[in-house]
Amino acid sequence: MNTSVDEIADGIFRLSTFVPEVAAPAGFTFNQFLVLGDEPLLFHTGPRRMFPLVQEAVARVVAPERLRWISFGHVEADECGAMNEWLACAPDAVVAHGEIAVMVSLNDLADRAPRLLGNGEVIDLGGGKRVRYLDTPHTPHGW
Hints:
alpha/beta, two-stranded antiparallel ribbon, 32% strand, globular
């Protein structure tokens, strides 16, 4: 397995790992998104066992220890399974998510306290990049 890195917009990279054994015979592609800025953000960490592949892919773009923000769509192994590996690798990184995920799971699962984001809250990554948290409690998985 390897993880490809493609710049899909200025300073925004998709990291893709095709795993043929998942959902055979078609296989499955795991994707993460890296947004550069003064405070880089990784959206989706990938599964814990995929961490070495994704870390190497991130390193092709930016030093992994420079990550400042880690976030994901919802709490599930393919979205945040490697969360604590990233927290260990990036000493200044903070997991950022909405109230339900923080209260129900992340306060317990994350090795460092997560940042609770309010609906519509914007994180300024610097370098002209900003991300906005939109609370959508109805999707996915009823959260």
